[in-house]
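Subject: for your reference before the review

Hello V.,

The reviewers asked for a structural picture of the protein, and I figured it would be easier to keep everything in one thread rather than splitting it across files. Below is the amino acid sequence we used in the manuscript, unchanged from the supplementary table.
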Amino acid sequence: MDREKFIALGRQLGLENEELREWVERECVEARDECAREREISKENAERQQKLLEQQQKVQEQELKILELKLRLQESASGLSIVVPKTQGFL
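And here is what came back from the structure prediction:
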């Protein structure tokens, strides 16, 4: 909320002169602090989301490697020669 709105609200509450100025200043500081907290929370949430996505990608890459190794194991066990393309950069 901007300063003018706080002034109007303070006047509606019956505040005047120095009491009004002090109240408006406190409210402005509180509003700025709240905005800063919200920005920090948003930043932290975005960082957590990014880390989660990175972890999920690593898990998928590991699962793909496991599947490739299982396929190669089956190839060697059966004597077949199946070409498996490299998947680097696949995900």
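For the response letter, the relevant points are probably these. The chain has one domain: 3-78. The chain has two helices and no strands.

Happy to draft the paragraph if you're swamped.

O.
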